[in-house]
UniProtKB/TrEMBL annotation:
Protein name per its UniProtKB record: PEP-utilising enzyme mobile domain-containing protein
GO molecular-function terms, A-Z: transferase activity, transferring phosphorus-containing groups
PROSITE patterns: PEP_ENZYMES_PHOS_SITE
Residue ranges of every copy of the PEP-utilising enzyme mobile domain listed in the record: 351-421
Pfam family for this entry, one: PEP-utilizers
InterPro entries: PEP-util_enz_mobile_dom, PEP_util_AS, PEP_Utilizing_Enz, Phosphohistidine_dom_sf
PANTHER family with a match to the protein in the record: PHOSPHOENOLPYRUVATE SYNTHASE-RELATED, PPDK_N DOMAIN-CONTAINING PROTEIN
């Protein structure tokens, strides 16, 4: 992968940028076309028609997933190169406040993210409620219709009106001037971002080709993040299909979602017994790809278990190997109460100002992340969900801190020094 990126940019230093920019055309088509892959009454469809509808949805997901996976697989390509520029060319001390400020300013995506668009619109509704121009019930209904799909991804549940009612009730307790100040910064996101970069480029006299390294990373980050949201959107429109399949074969929606894409089609075409296949899956589920990466291979349970045990014994993780120090994913230093989130179901544990600690986060952690003062995760790099959201929200974040969900307990008073990648308990 790294060699391929180097090859693309050797011919044209903006080569990768051009390839990644194709995502935004896909995104527009995706948002327009995926909702059309639905019908009013799924009961009228034959199993074969239902299978085709399902495959049409998945066709779009496959295209978006390429960008999601690229950002994840290639994320370690850029940090050494960015570090070399910052330290050796610009003379900035590694891991200093200045280092992180410049790094994360230069890698901000050009356009405002879906995460921040949703946050902006929620804040607007809260401000309107405080001005008596909107009701909580109408605002909740509006927001759930616009953004309810966001946390679905592969196994998530849509945000309903009650979700937004709870969030809005919390937000209207905040001073109106504070709400409007944050709304203004989000409305002017691109303008503020561009000015920050302009100031940094002028201050350090950064060369165009060096600057491109940061732009490429920002694009990889943004296309990964937005690619995941497209998967969520498609997942939202799959839910009624899953429900219909579940009814026809006396399964739960959760069971249907545990079947591979190929297996769902085979179930609908009468080629396999779903209950038997689910039973065969057991505890270990895995898949891989052939040497040419064109064909997915679903492993049998016994083979998956063998591979898992081999990896556990012999593979060193690229991230999360140190109990004492993680990686700064968003700078800052803050104190707060630790709240361990083992799943999105622990959402209500996190209150305003708490420190959210998780193995990793996904979009369905967002409600808690909006209230948290900092994030700490056991795994992840600079493009992981927690890292991206932390920089968007402007809160400290440490990723790759091994055993952080074990070493800290709910209620511990802790200090997060993200600049140094350190989290410590305050006695």
């Amino acid at each position: 992968m790294y060699n391929r990126i180097t090859e693309i940019n050797r011919k044209d230093y903006k080569g990768l940028q051009k390839k990644l920019n194709t995502f935004y055309k896909l995104k527009k088509s995706f948002i327009l076309e995926v909702p059309k892959i639905s019908v009013k009454n799924y009961k009228k469809l034959s199993n074969k028609q239902l299978a085709q509808l399902y495959l049409n949805n998945r066709h779009w997901v496959h295209q978006a997933a390429v960008f999601d996976q690229f950002g994840w697989i290639a994320e370690e390509y850029w940090p050494p190169k960015m570090k070399d520029i910052l330290v050796n060319k610009l003379g900035i001390k590694e891991d200093s406040q200045e280092y992180h400020t410049v790094l994360f300013a230069l890698t901000k995506p050009e356009e405002i993210s879906t995460t921040l668009v949703e946050k902006r619109d929620v804040l607007k509704e809260a401000a309107a409620i405080k001005k008596h121009k909107q009701s909580i019930s109408k605002a909740s209904k509006k927001l759930s219709k616009l953004y309810g799909w966001m946390p679905v991804f592969t196994f998530g549940t849509p945000w309903d009106e009650s979700h937004y009612t709870t969030e809005l009730k919390g937000l209207i307790k905040i001073d109106l001037r504070e709400l409007e100040s944050e709304i203004k910064s989000l409305v002017n996101y691109s303008k503020i971002r561009n000015q920050e970069i302009k100031n940094i480029v002028q201050k350090y006299n950064i060369e165009t080709k060096d600057l491109q390294i940061f732009y490429d990373f920002a694009l990889a980050l943004d296309t990964r993040n937005e690619g995941e949201y497209l998967v969520s959107l498609a997942g939202y429109y799959l839910l009624p299909i899953y429900k219909e399949i579940a009814k026809r074969f006396s399964l739960s929606v959760k069971q249907v979602r545990c079947l591979y894409e190929k297996e769902i089609v085979e179930v609908l075409l009468g080629k396999i017994d779903p209950e038997k296949r689910l039973h065969e899956k057991g505890k270990f589920i895995g898949w891989g790809f052939g040497s040419d990466l064109t064909e997915r291979i679903n492993f049998k349970t016994k083979d998956t278990e063998k591979i898992y045990k081999h990896i556990e014994r012999n593979v060193i993780n690229l991230q999360g190997n140190d109990d004492n120090q993680g990686v700064c994913a968003s700078p800052g230093k803050i104190k707060g109460r630790a709240k361990i989130m083992n799943s999105p179901n622990d959402d209500k544990k996190v209150h305003q100002g708490d420190i959210l600690i998780a193995y990793a986060t996904t979009v369905d952690y967002l409600p808690a992340m909006k209230r948290a003062a900092a994030f700490v995760t056991e795994v992840g790099g600079l493009t992981c969900h927690a890292a991206v959201v932390a920089r968007e929200f402007g809160v400290p974040c440490v990723v790759g801190l091994k055993n952080s969900t074990i070493n800290f307990k709910d209620g511990d008073l802790i200090e997060v020094d993200a600049n140094k990648g350190i989290v410590r308990k305050i006695k």
